[in-house]
Structures
1.
Amino acid sequence: MVERIRSACPHDCPSACALEVERIAPDRIGRVHGARDNPYTQGVVCAKVARYAERVHHPDRLTRPQRRVGAKGEGAFAPVSWDDALDEIAEAFTQAAQRHGSETVWPYHSGGTMGLVQRWGIDRLRHTMRYSRQKTTICITPAESGWRAGVGALTGPDPREMAEADLIIVWGGNPVSTQVNQMTHIQRARKSRGAKLAVVDCYRTPTVEQADIPIVLRPGSDAALACAMMCVMLEDGTADRDFLARLTDFDPEVERHLRGRTPAWAAKITGLTEATIRDFARLYAGTERAFIRLGFGFTRSRNGAAAMHAVTGLPAVGGKWRHQGGGAFFVNLDNWKLDLSTAYALDRLDPDTRVLDQSRIGAVLTGQPDALAGGPPVTAMLMQNANSANVAPDSRTVRRGLTRDDLFVVVHEQFPTATAQLADVLLPAAVFLEYDDLYYGLGHTMLTAGQRVLDRYAESWTNHEVICALGKRLGADHPGFDMSAAELLDTTLRASGRGSWAEAAERGWVDFTAPFEEAHFLEGFPQPGGRFRFKPDWAALGPYYADLPEMPDYADIVERADDAHPFRLVAPPARTFLNTSFTETPSSRAREKHPTALVHPMDAERLGLGEGARVRMGNGRGEVDMLWRSFEGLQPGTVVVEGIWPNSDWTGGMGINQLIGGDPVPPAGGVAFHDTAVWLRGSN
Ligand code: SF4
């Protein structure tokens, strides 16, 4: 008999979809559906998760613990029991700490699962053992910094309001490929209200293809477009002076500055025409219910925080926050206010323990002093939910670090990834269908509940079980190590006044929707003084603020093309991969085919690229080789390569992220994945 069990998607995607999973046996699923009664998911999930059976029942899943037997990186392992593996890890961590101090151990995580317990529970180990902590920057930090600079806290209107908008601007995101649920609400507005969809991006994505108003600009130039739009509103007299006076720090100096950022100035930077910029600004100014849905893509640039800050100035100048279906939304990160003291052992956090930057793992592991924050070298790691050898920037340096002879690396993984191949001890991890957890709906207002659906696969363990077992062996003393995942979730919800785990699992989610006035900041922005800041305090946001502008502006701090590197590379997600998750499933591989460079036909002709031939692309960090395709949907000088293909899919065994800089993005870190200068030539 096929049962439908409620669960939630754990993947690194703001939709955190509420799911209904067909269970056809205690250890087997059928198709995965979106929960029909969840008001955000509305029965829709992406194709890759709908076919999750391909992933959970994949023959390549790791089945048992293994110990390295060959040279580092050779990928030769022998089976070992869980007890022996955990004893060996505990002994190695203890010895490392005795030799160098506890901060030499770095429990490391990324976004392979986004659950409260299974992702972040590793903090309990960090805090109780005084191990190095982690600043998690790889995804969101440039965008987050830009939003905090102007608006303040990471909250905002309920994105379901898009269905009540008359103009929706998707800025720097590609929801058709990466967050399909956004399109559900956008299409409702288009059908029921005749709303227009505008999409701003640096290449013709599938979402741009669906737009009424497609705006394809040069990568990294978004702030110039936003500033020029504000200039037009000020010149035309369509700025909302009352809103600016009551709820922002707008003053004559800001006005003078923005009036100088004319469409003519922006046209040179963006590659758009002046008429396109003026028309877009006037459409925005003339639409009360104008909703800007901000993506991550346009902020993955060295000037990304400044770009986000400039774009968030638009609804302030236009007073769009006043209206149902108006304003802007990025992510809900500060909406939850959960009591996580037991789950993360916050009572044991020593603020003096160092914090290492997740994105700078290459610099950390190769011993760059600033990356080590004045502490000892990292000589022992536990990596969960992380395929950093493939996904982190400057991946040649990451690999060099991970293969150091004096570094003991434990990788807890579902598949034999590039990072797993570099482990000293490799542990098999459960997938979300095999455990309980709660997931932040960063792209909406609900905490979704993912209860266990399947029996455990082979000898796999959950992240939580590994943390608890290691904690006990290491002598970590905290009640959280003695609780099941469900007990921790229950404790967290109850302590936060949000019901129980049983209630959440039965309903499928916990609703955190804020009232309209609060969500639209009409009682004040979450900033000192309650005002949106056109003049941000960048220094308060992070240490790398020096080159950021005092007011909304285009910051010319990108990795500029030059004679030796005349192209700008953008490396966005592929539709059916999610970072390197799903790169193993047959249907995703069949759709994405192979790494491909999208090259403008004028550039291809100039370079004499032959149809069906291969190209080489590189810079001082490395070189890659792939097929290319002629593509008119970008500006000449831009090259796009979609998807983080596994290193094993590339000639030479290293992928696209070897070309990406590992330098921290201003002001608080993060990665400039779409801001890379490269050369390009035909490959023989
Ligand atoms: S859209 Fe995002 S959250 Fe929803 S099922 Fe797909 S990956 Fe998961």
Note: The pocket of iron/sulfur cluster is lined by residues 9, 11, 13, 15-17, 45-46, 49, 179-181, 578 (CB under 6 Å).
2.
Amino acid sequence: MDKRFAWQLAAVCLLTLIAALLIVSLISGVDSTPIALPATATADAAAWHAPDIHSVDTTADGRLILYGRELIIHTATYLGPRGSVLHLTNGMNCQNCHLDAGTRLWGNNYSAVAATYPKFRERSGSTESIYKRINDCMRRSLNGTPLDTASREMLAMKAYILWLGQGTKRGSKIKGAGIKELPYLDRAADPAAGKMVYTDKCQSCHKEDGQGILQPDGRSYQYPPLWGQHSFNAGAGLYRLSRIAGYVKYNMPYGVSSDAPQLSDEEAWDVAAYICSQPRPAMDLSHDWPHLAAKPIDHPFGPYTDTFSERQHKYGPFAPIAAAKARK
Ligand code: HEC
Ligand code: HEC
């Protein structure tokens, strides 16, 4: 072989090797990209960002955090009517209402919990621990039975929620936390108008009868129920019109970004009214709101400290109730 040819061959081999390395690194780069955050979480730099779940290690503490996240995403698989650990809840998942495992901006996320609990809450009239707050959602939102506070499941959910809020400071205002408030309408929300919104924009997933669709394994929902015996009960936060309207406006139909909602405010209030006009499990609320004057104006059950009807407290118009409260 002459010398020049040998050099050319070596150069070609080298170039091929570099090209091959480039391709491999590109492919593995794609593979190791972490699961994309929802569009809403990246849009606003000032808004809260959940820490990266890939940073959690496999120590005992890390495994507890990961189990907590798993329980929040797949609650029914572990704790539902056919759960593998216990049978405590109605078949819904925490994530049905706390979207993306409690990390989605304006998706009822958990960003504020670590920085605000223990916290005084008027509903119970007491200072509540995270355990108490989680069990509140167990009893009301999941229409179930509380978890033992020493159980691995409770400790895991608490560990995950604290881990999520590790970067938030006590007393600081967190942008994108919880549920976004909608301005009040100057009329009562209208269940009949809401039924039309429902047929048009919700029924394809949640079904005409509001019962959602179970996964093929029958253990959890693909599309959760919005009313009826498998839904959240009448003591749940989401049964208050302002809560469900704010949740729906910025998160439904599923997949919308809170930056670009599809529903108008009126549609959100009306469809919320339609959902809340349907039957759901009851709950004994006689011990709630011991300081009556602190009851939210959209709480659908009396007694109240004003003279507005239960119906107006449920559907509005809310502005006159708010004005009367401000005058007190
Ligand atoms: C049917 C919907 C729904 C389900 C299911 C649900 N929650 Fe909630 N949760 C809510 C609502 C509504 C609130 C109150 C939000 C508000 O008023 O801003 C809330 C509040 C909370 C809070 C307090 C948040 C804060 O910032 O103060 C925690 C913690 C919580 N839920 C945990 C859970 C856990 C854990 C589960 C599952 C075991 C669960 N929730 C299931 C609707 C739900
Ligand atoms: C493309 C399917 C789809 C459509 C359309 C849709 N949803 Fe949902 N909805 C979901 C899914 C999926 C969840 C649970 C999200 C999760 O677990 O991550 C959900 C959760 C909810 C929840 C909280 C959980 C519960 O069961 O109470 C409410 C309330 C809700 N949707 C209302 C609505 C309303 C109102 C509309 C119409 C404006 C609507 N949805 C349209 C798929 C949909």
Note: Residues 228 and 280 are 5 Å apart (CA to CA).
